Amino acid sequence: MRPPGRTDAIPPQALILIGIASVQFGAAFADTLFAKAGPAGVVLMRLAFASAVLLALTRPRLRGRTRRDLLAAVGFGLVLACMNWSFYESLDRLPLGPAATVEFIGPLGVAIAGSRKMLDLLWVALAGGGVALLAFGGSHQSLDLVGLLLAALAGAFWAAYILLSQRVGSGFAGLDGLAIALTLATLVMLPAGVADGGSALLRPDVLLGGLGVAVLSSLIPYSLELIALRRLSAAGFGLLMSLEPAFAALAGMLVLSQRPQLRTVAAIVMVVVASAGTTLEANRSATGRAGRSRGPEATGEAGDSEPDAGAAPLDGPPGEASGGPALSGPAPTSQPPPLG
Description:
Elements: H1 12-58, H2 67-91, H3 96-103, H4 105-112, H5 118-135, H6 145-171, H7 176-197, H8 204-228, H9 234-241, H10 244-256, H11 262-294
């Protein structure tokens, strides 16, 4: 039996919340570097540092890969570059809270896509109303329309990331696919990043700041989520990740002195409630389907029959017997830690 580590004494919920805070405070810190290196320059540094760490850890091999796997990795890298770039460009024009809230519509849309339940239409309307409130609130301090469109574009790329990550994850072992994709994303961002950042990318203080962004927004949250998901159900993970827009607003307020307007707070609450509702409804539906598939034996209705000892627990941690979080559950609503 593996001896308990120091992190085992910390509740998994706390680890997830720390990871969320790290992602959003990393984004706020990235915002402070835009004046020195530009959004594209900061994206380049973040991707480069993250890919360097993963390449050192995984040392992936391209030999023996199928053409389909390599094309999936190339597409994944393009999506990573475009998602990060569009989001950081939106941050250059919008407060962090509204930008993260609009971007969150992408994974929320993936979670709801294909559903035929009337209740899910309520979550769609609630999330859409939150975004509309941000875009057309009619305040004298109106949000930048280009920034809103860029945040929505980042959300669309985030949705594509979710779908492609399943394909890349099935074709590559461990983190090999992500390491390859991050390297390709770095190469894609190289021209724009150098043009935007210029000679500032050679300054030690700027490079140190880029490393800090990579650590806060990538390495810390990714490590914490890997540890937490060993002891936390998929539904619990998704529910906690629903708080991400609220953490973004808090980071913007504390780091960037961005005071949210009342309509911004209302919009964030609407999107958070929609995400939480989607997660809870997906978990309830999955639990119901699993219960029906196990038949009456699982509930003791078939006399003295014993339940199947090898059956996966309904609320087991992702990646174990439960097979990982379903696409319609919490996975789409989580910020990809190495990205975002």
